[in-house]
Amino acid sequence: MIKALIFDMDGVLIDSEIMYQKWVFNFLKQENLSYPLYSYQKKIGTTASIFDDIEKYNEGCNSLELKGKFTKYWKSQKINYLDIFPNILIEQLEWLKKKKIKMAIASSSPMDTINEVVTTCKIESYFDCLISGRDLPESKPNPTIFLKASEQLRIPVEECLVIEDSYNGIKAGKRANMKVLAIKDKRFSQDVSLADDVIYDIKYLRQEVQVKFGI
Prior knowledge:
Helix content is 42%, strand content 13%. It is an alpha/beta fold. The protein folds into two domains: 4-15 and 81-213, 3-Layer(aba) Sandwich (Rossmann fold); 17-76. Helix 3 (51-57) crosses helix 4. The chain is globular and about 55 Å long. The model has no long low-confidence stretch (mean pLDDT 94). It comes from Enterococcus gallinarum.
């Protein structure tokens, strides 16, 4: 029986992946650098840096220097997380809370970003713990982030359901011996075949966890 849901954040709780992708490629265009879209999308869901990859595709490019420039560019971008937060999620989180389901966020984003998202979107009260992959030695698809969530929630792995949108996140969930519900975004070429079940929109979350996972 499922007693806990562990959510990825980007692409699940907020529709941020398409925005991040746009920023990366706008920046690269500004710097006259090339990088295949499929290579970028392979990194989705991890803390792995894209800059070593970009260096391989662009002669004379220095990955550390490029990362520094991009960090400044990233910080200059304005984000209103409420604009990319699906309001329908509130009633779903409220329903899960009433069902006494434990909830966690396990994201590859930095902890300050996770805190900003949950505070801005007013969803911090629904989550029992927040975990950033940046604070761990290995990134998804390594299962450590989900095992840590299970430990902090005090719920066995076999009673945890991971909600993910990326291949790396799905693989991490399965490596943690957890059930995984994938959210398939047709804008990205993410392989979701390892997941136990798939939905195409977060609005179907409640229906799916009731029918498929017995919550």
